[in-house]
Each structure stands twice: as C-alpha cells, then as structure tokens.
Write a structure and sequence with these properties.
Length: 98
C-alpha cells in the first residue's frame, strides 16, 4: 500500500510540474504575442508619424512657393514688367486693308 501511495504522490508531483511548465509556456506565449502586437502597433504609429511629417513638409514647401510667387508678382508689378502667367498671350491679330 505504501508503494501505491508513493507512486501516486510521484504522479501528482509530476502532474503539478507539468501544469506549472504548461502555465509558464502559456504566459511566455501570451507575453510574446503582446510584444508582437506592441511592435506592430509601434511600427504603424511610426509610419503614420513619417507620413504626417512628409505631409507637413510638403504643405510648408507649397506655402513657401506660393508666397515666393506672390512676392515675385508684386515685384514685377512694381517694376512694370509683364506678369508671368500660365497662359501665353494671344497672338496679335492682323487687320487686312480692303
């Protein structure tokens, strides 16, 4: 009978160790999963920040170009020079004498 009790205790302690290892592995897997998710979220946020910075840079560049163009047109008006436009002036018309 003593042999069976010792054997049962060994089985029980083995089962407890196995349960403990299993619990540790589950916790490690969950931690790894949360690390992966956190890394993925950080990567997304980093990419979003890069995109937002790029948009801000482009916006500032466009504003600077617009201000430069406005300043250039003001200067040309002050100098009496023709303004640079996107459309070429119409060709001169020739009136025929009849």
């Amino acid at each position: 009978m003593k042999k069976l009790t010792n054997h049962d205790r060994l089985i029980e302690t083995g089962r407890e160790r196995l349960q403990q290892k299993l619990q540790e592995r589950r916790m490690a897997a969950m931690a790894a999963k949360t690390d992966q998710e956190r890394d993925r979220v950080n990567a997304i946020l980093s990419k979003q920040d890069d995109v937002e910075q790029g948009v801000d840079r482009r916006k500032a560049d466009m504003q600077r170009k617009l201000m430069d163009r406005i300043e250039q047109e003001k200067q040309q008006r002050a100098d009496g020079k023709p303004l640079n436009t996107f459309y070429p002036p119409p060709p001169p018309t020739v009136l025929e004498d009849n």
